[in-house]
Structures are given as structure tokens and as C-alpha cells.
């Protein structure tokens, strides 16, 4: 009897404890834990009230969900961006989404990566500011060039309208020889100006490194292009010694034999360029690897 009463009492107590427990909230994503911790510390320090903390927490969750929606429904924030990009391009090829939809999706992904410091975004360097001294040098050179041009024109006009081309040429050459020092002065001034501008030019931004996978694809593409180039060279060599009829046969045979290779190179080049542009190309860099 005592055992039955004890068991019943324990069951009731356990049930009461279970019902009294608050339902557990789903764990916060890793991206939000730092912000949530900052909100908690602000409450403990008395900087904000519990009500304000609740509002900030709800706003944080809402922004997170909106950002997740921009990246595409069903896509996890922590998913490898390269995999997302690959799946997106594949969806375009299969006609599941449009190019415009893919562009918006990848733009949002790249922006999110840049905001999180996961993607290098080198900025286009500003043109160097030309000093007043250099500006004065440029104006002086222009004045010298204008003066020489005017003097040459006067010399040529003195020959009259009936002057031959040879006479005009001889007059100009004679003027250049007589004013050799002035022309040399202009040349030296141009060199000094160029060196001054180059010395004050900001360094070019670092070009983002390609992934090992992309490097391998680029190398494979170069190898296929080289193979095609060698085949074309061999064809051209054979065409030199062939008759008209033989040329037509050789060209037709070459096209048929290499049609698939050509299409493969074309498709692969397009895919590799898309991958490079999606992952590393920025406003300051352009795809020139291929």
C-alpha cells in the first residue's frame, strides 16, 4: 500500500515539474549568437530594458529570415557559397529559373559574403591627384608644342599653294633639325611628367585568387585549346600542298572530326568564365584568365 502511494506521489510530482517547464525555444543560428549575447549583456548592464531587448531580439530574427529569403527559399545560410552558385547555374541551364532570377540570387549571396568578411572586395583605386607643379609642367609643354606647330605652319605657308609634297617635307625636316633642342626639351618634359604620375599612382588592388578547382579547370581548358591549335596548324600545313579538291575534303574531314571537341571547349570556356566571374570578379578586376 505504501509503495503504491509513494509511486503515485512521485508520478504526480514529476508530471507537475514537466508541465511547469517552459517550452524550449529552437536554438539560434550561429550567425545570431554574437548579437544575442550583446543584447543580453546590454540588459544586464542596464543600458536597455527587457522590453527593448525583446524588440531587438525580434528584429534580429526578422532581419535574419528576410536575408535568408533573399538568398533563396530552402537554401541554408551556412551552405558552401560555391555549391549554391553551382546549383544556381545548373538551375538556369535546366530552365528552372531565369537568368535574371539567378543574377539577383547570386548578387545577394555575394553581398552577404562581403558583409561578413568572407569575400574580398577590392575597390577600384582612385586616379592620383595631379599636383599643381605637374599641371604647370603639362601647360608649359602644351605651350611649347603649340608654338612649334604654329611656326611650322608659317614655314609651310611661305612655300605657297603650289608647293610640292617633297618641298613641304623638306621644309618640315629642316625646321625640326634647326629646332632639335626644343623638340628634345618637349620629349624630356613628357618623360618627367609620366614618371611623376606613375610614382604617385596607387598600387593596383590584389586580384582574388582562384580556387584550386577553378585553376584545374582553367589549365584543362588551356590544354584542350592547345591541342586544337596544334591540329589546326597541321591542317594548314597539309592544305599548302593539296589541290583544290583535296583541300575541300581535308577541311570537311577536319570539321567533322573536331566538331565535338570545339563545342566542348566552347561550353567549358563559358562555364569556367561564369564561375570565375561569380566568385572572384569585382568592379576592380576583370576576367582575363582565359
SSE inventory with pairings:
Layout: H1 2-20, H2 30-44, H3 50-71, H4 81-93, H5 99-115, H6 132-158, H7 165-178, H8 180-199, H9 212-240, H10 244-279
Helix pairs in contact: 2-3, 4-5, 6-8, 9-10
Succession of helices and strands: HHHHHHHHHH
**Distance between termini?**
88 Å
What is the strand tally? 0
| Radius of gyration from the alpha-carbon trace, in angstroms | 37 Å
Q: pLDDT below 50 for ≥5 consecutive residues: which ranges?
A: 1-24, 70-76, 282-290
Largest sheet: none
Secondary-structure class: mainly alpha
How many structural domains in the coordinates? Answer: 3
Beta-strand portion reads under 5%
Give the proportion of residues in helices: over 70%
Summed up, the helix count is 10
The backbone outline, from C-alpha atoms, is flat
Whole-number average pLDDT? 77
Amino acid at each position: 500500500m505504501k509503495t503504491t502511494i509513494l509511486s503515485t506521489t512521485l508520478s504526480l510530482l514529476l508530471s507537475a515539474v514537466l508541465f511547469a517547464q517552459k517550452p524550449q525555444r529552437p536554438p539560434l543560428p550561429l550567425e545570431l549568437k554574437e548579437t544575442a549575447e550583446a543584447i543580453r549583456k546590454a540588459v544586464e548592464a542596464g543600458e536597455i530594458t527587457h522590453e527593448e531587448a525583446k524588440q531587438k531580439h525580434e528584429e534580429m530574427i526578422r532581419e535574419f529570415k528576410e536575408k535568408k529569403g533573399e538568398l533563396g527559399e530552402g537554401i541554408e545560410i551556412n551552405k558552401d557559397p560555391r555549391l549554391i552558385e553551382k546549383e544556381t547555374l545548373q538551375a538556369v541551364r535546366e530552365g528552372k529559373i531565369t537568368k535574371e532570377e539567378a543574377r539577383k540570387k547570386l548578387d545577394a549571396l555575394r553581398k552577404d559574403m562581403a558583409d561578413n568578411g568572407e569575400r574580398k572586395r577590392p575597390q577600384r583605386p582612385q586616379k592620383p591627384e595631379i599636383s599643381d607643379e605637374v599641371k604647370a609642367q603639362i601647360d608649359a609643354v602644351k605651350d611649347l608644342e603649340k608654338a612649334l606647330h604654329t611656326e611650322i605652319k608659317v614655314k609651310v605657308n611661305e612655300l605657297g599653294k603650289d608647293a610640292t609634297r617633297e618641298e613641304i617635307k623638306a621644309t618640315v625636316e629642316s625646321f625640326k633639325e634647326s629646332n632639335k633642342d626644343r623638340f628634345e626639351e618637349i620629349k624630356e618634359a613628357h618623360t618627367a611628367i609620366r614618371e611623376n604620375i606613375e610614382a604617385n599612382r596607387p598600387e593596383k588592388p590584389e586580384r582574388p585568387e582562384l580556387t584550386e578547382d577553378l585553376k584545374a579547370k582553367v589549365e584543362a581548358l588551356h590544354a584542350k585549346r592547345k591541342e586544337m591549335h596544334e591540329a589546326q596548324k597541321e591542317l594548314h600545313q597539309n592544305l599548302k600542298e593539296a589541290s583544290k579538291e583535296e583541300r575541300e575534303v581535308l577541311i570537311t574531314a577536319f570539321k567533322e572530326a573536331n566538331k565535338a571537341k570545339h563545342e566542348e571547349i566552347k561550353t567549358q570556356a563559358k562555364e569556367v568564365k561564369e564561375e570565375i566571374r561569380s566568385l572572384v570578379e569585382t568592379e576592380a578586376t576583370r576576367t582575363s584568365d582565359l
